[in-house]
From TrEMBL:
Lineage: Eukaryota, Metazoa, Chordata, Craniata, Vertebrata
Keywords from the named record: Coiled coil, Metal-binding, Zinc, Zinc-finger
Full protein name: Tripartite motif-containing protein 65-like
Annotated gene: LOC117541164
Coiled-coil segments: 101-196
Signal peptide coordinates: none
Residue span, RING-type domain: 15-58
Length: 203
């Protein structure tokens, strides 16, 4: 009997207002049950002054219905001893834990599913970065090759211009030296002529 009662759903003997096991349970016309004090206090509240209604299903009652003690519920609640009540509370707590556990596991699964596309996106980013790097390497290699080629061309050009200029200057110098040498010869000849003419006593 104790085991059977422990399997009772704690919700069916709990008050919707105070959430505890019902004390002096009363059932109102809609069929919902509350502690006598809880529903009385609720109906005495400001909002309920004119029109009484069930806090759970909102069904209204006019005029205020007489509150009748639910003998069946009272009997059930009174029969429950502390140990059985504790067992019921533990079982309810266990149920809540299981629900939370399932929700947590589901959420974990959902997050794992969300990680997949992120991994794919990361792979795509890596791939495109690799391609961009490869492309830029190609461009720079080509630029370096062109610059090296141009450098060598400019070097060759300067060398050629240098040689041309040097040979132009050397030609000029050679010509001048040749002319100087010829002039020297002429000078010598003239001097000789002058000297022999003088000795022969032309003057
Ligand atoms: Zn209550
Ligand atoms: Zn109700």
């Amino acid at each position: 009997m104790a085991q059977r009662r422990s399997q009772l759903d704690l919700d069916s003997i709990s008050c919707w207002i105070c959430l505890d096991v019902m004390k002096d349970p009363v059932t109102i016309p809609c069929g919902h049950s509350y502690c006598m004090d809880c529903i009385t206090n609720y109906w005495d509240g400001e909002e309920q002054k004119k029109k009484k209604s069930c806090p759970q299903c909102r069904k209204a009652f006019t005029p205020r219905s007489a509150l009748v003690k639910n003998t069946m519920l009272s009997f059930l609640v009174e029969q429950l001893n502390r140990t059985e009540l504790l067992t019921l509370k533990r079982s309810r707590a266990q149920k809540e834990i299981n629900v939370s556990l399932q929700k947590t596991q589901q959420r974990m699964q959902d997050r794992k599913e969300e990680v997949k596309p992120l991994q794919e996106e990361e792979d795509a980013i890596n791939c495109s970065a690799d391609k961009a790097l490869e492309e830029s390497e190609k461009i720079f290699t080509e630029l370096i090759r062109l610059l090296e080629k141009r450098r060598s061309e400019v070097k060759q050009q300067i060398k050629t211009e240098h040689e041309t200029e040097i040979s132009r200057v050397r030609d000029l110098r050679r010509n001048l030296e040749k002319e100087i040498s010829e002039l020297k010869n002429t000078e010598t000849e003239l001097k000789e002529i002058s000297s022999s003419t003088f000795h022969r006593g032309f003057f």
